[in-house]
Design a protein that fits this description.
The complex is a heterodimer of chains A (194) and B (86). Chain A is 76% helix and 0% strand. Chain A has 194 residues and is mainly α. The N and C termini of chain A lie far apart (44 Å). Chain B has 86 residues and is mostly helical. Chain B has one domain: MYOD Basic-Helix-Loop-Helix Domain, subunit B, CATH 4.10.280. Helices cover 85% and strands 0% of the residues of chain B. Chain B is built from four helices and no strands. Chain B starts with a helix and ends with a helix. Classes of the chains: A mainly alpha (194), B mainly alpha (86). Chain A: Belongs to the bHLH protein family.
Chain lengths: 194, 86
């Protein structure tokens, strides 16, 4: 099928705008996330990244389970963004601004812990005074916050990014589950006396 | 401003939303023929993304745990072997 061919052949002019227009009619560009080849590539990249995490956390003696799992999550997301080959906003946002965003948010949270209560009540009255912005817009804002790098996008672009993001996340889940299965099976096998 | 926006992109929105509906597993189950309201679909999308995020977090925890007990080189060999097999 054309889909799998295109996925296995990234240099075959996937990038052009014309290609994209044609693909939108027949197969949505999200189909590439469903191919096995893509998943295998992602899995091997992920393993590399996890290995690096392990090495760096072994050096830092204070690595807790939580921080290590966090590092794995970050590595998985970065590998996912790389797999997108820079064609989507969310992937570029992950690769470029991730650390900065987390930093800024952490600092902002820490700076006003007490002011939060009054700020929250103020924002509540503010939104009710706005007399219900259309439900669609509210939900679109929430969605924009969930997809990285898509906060201020107009709705059509946001929906496009969201569909691609969802397909990518599904592949991420599939790949990580497969790796977990293999590792747990390998662990069991290693434990048994041969 | 908002009315102009809705006039221009309403069809686009409808098309994109139908694409989205195709993606979401629950919407698919709910017979893609029935037209769900856009707001509901957006909400479902948000919920779905959040649940996917949670799943990825859980999987990261699990992988971290598994990798703590195995040494990496044998793990990699095992994975490569399995990947080649499938």
């Amino acid at each position: 099928m054309a889909i799998s061919n295109a996925a296995g052949d990234p240099a075959a002019g996937n990038e052009g705008g014309g290609e994209r227009k044609r693909k939108r009619r027949e197969d949505p560009p999200v189909a590439k996330w469903r191919t096995e080849g893509e998943q295998k590539t992602y899995s091997s990249k992920l393993i590399e990244a996890i290995r690096r995490v392990r090495r760096s956390s072994a050096a830092a003696a204070a690595a807790t389970d939580h921080s290590r799992s966090r590092a794995v999550r970050v590595a998985a997301d970065r590998a996912l963004a790389v797999a997108a080959r820079g064609r989507t906003r969310w992937s570029r946002a992950i690769l470029s601004g991730r650390k900065l965003k987390l930093w800024v948010r952490a600092r902002a949270c820490r700076r006003k812990p007490l002011g939060n209560i009054t700020a929250a009540s103020a924002s509540y009255s503010h939104t009710t005074r706005k007399s219900k912005p259309p439900a669609l817009e509210r939900k679109a804002r929430v969605l924009g916050r969930l997809v990285p790098g898509c906060r201020k996008l107009p709705l059509p672009t946001l929906l496009e990014e969201a569909s691609d993001y969802i397909a990518a996340l599904e592949m991420q889940v599939r790949a990580m589950s497969a790796i977990a299965e293999i590792l747990s099976a390998a662990g069991v096998a290693a434990a048994e006396p041969m | 401003m908002s009315s102009r926006r809705s006039r221009i992109s309403e069809e686009e929105i409808k098309e994109l939303i139908s694409n989205l509906q195709f993606l979401l597993p629950e919407s698919r189950r709910r017979q893609a023929a029935t037209r769900v309201s856009a707001a509901k679909l957006l909400k479902e999308t948000c919920n779905y993304i959040e649940s996917l995020h949670r799943e990825v977090d859980d999987l990261s925890d699990r992988l971290t745990e598994l990798l703590a007990t195995m040494d990496i080189t044998s793990a990699q060999a095992e994975i490569v072997r399995s990947l080649l097999r499938s």
